[in-house]
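User: Predict the complex with fe (iii) ion.
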Amino acid sequence: MKTVDLVVRDAAQLITLDEPLPAEGNGVDSASLPVVPDGAAAISDGKIIEYGATSDIAAKYKARSVISAAGMVVTPGLVDPHTHLVFPATREDEFEMRNMGLSYKEITLRGGGIHASVRKLREMSKEELVEKSLPYLNSALAHGTTAIEIKSGYGLTTKDEIKTLEAIAELNKRHVVDIVPTFLGAHEVPVEFRDNKEGYISLLINEMIPEVVRRGLAEFCDIFCEAHVYNIEESRRILLAAREAGMKLKMHADEIEPIGGAELAGELRAVSADHLVAASDAGIEALAAGGVAPVLLPATSFSLGLQKHAPARKMLDAGLPVALSTDFNPGTSFTESQQFTMSLACVNLKMSAAEALRGCTVNAARAICRDGTVGSIAPGKQADLVVWNIPNYKHLGYHSGVNLVRFVIKKGNIVARNVNTVKGT
Ligand code: NIG
Ligand code: FE
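Assistant: Here is the predicted structure with fe (iii) ion placed in the model:
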């Protein structure tokens, strides 16, 4: 009998998501989920050794420690593939202004929105940003998120973007959640370049992108491709420069108007295209043709009070690996809970619980190029697991507005626990 560090056992349902990716054409039925009843996982050195029926795992492995998941559900740790988690201050007044009738675009054009965050971030030190951000990472972890992408984009000068990316690197060192850094210098046109957008684009291409790459601070380059921010032609130039410099590509695409952002993501074979509320049918085809992962952000539509939602069903029908994310940011989505995202995905995007869970795990991992290490429970992958105090996985999304987590396990260690959950029966 082999000895392992940990066995998580007796799960009513062990949901591994250890299956071929839909885009590989292996016929994964997006609405169903393979479930191991009475499941267990053996873990050593922070990695999954094997999973299976509890009786089989218990017969094969002697555990140094054991976690009972009796009557509960075990899934991979959640992955959040699109956040703006490092920001200087909350913007609750804008939320209220929107609820009183102003639009996001109107607030931005009046100097609010991203501009308001930029003004404040420029006055803060890297250390202050780190201290501000740690509690949000704790909260994301407590709600089941074990890997997360974080973007810069509230600095908009070389110095302030680097400061933000260095804060993200520091958070990655100090916090157990795995962090993937993205450069979003093209989040807005800073006010000092309002009448000289070309000047800012040339700063991005000639100074910021090369400097970020030289310092190795970002894996991805993202852009806010939208009619009133960067149009298609400008986005193409900036993204091509980033790719040339060695970064992988992401896009905020077709969030408000269908300007062809999804088509551009397909053309450039970006890793992901995000938002996509207004994506056209041709755009969806382009995503499929370019192997682009769609990342949908239903909490943003919720916070903006939009009645229109991303065409998730069309994307799923096209075989796309639909991922979900919080878009956590102080302006348009102030939630760090992927559980909330799953509820909104079920109700507003008409996704099944299986599709929502896949969107927050294996497909989310793929959208940040981490599907080799996280997002599913499989031999050799990181032992990042959530034990949920629910009787079956369909309670994800259904039991809403409360934290359903019992334990979060990161690389084989319990890193968060929540004893005040009530299991619906
Ligand atoms: O994803 N669309 C642009 N960026 C964010 C909003 C950021 C902000 O308002 O601070 C988003 O919604
Ligand atoms: Fe965003």
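Residues 84, 113-114, 117, 224, 252, 255, 300, 327, 329-332 surround N-(iminomethyl)-L-glutamic acid (ligand 1) (CB under 6 Å).
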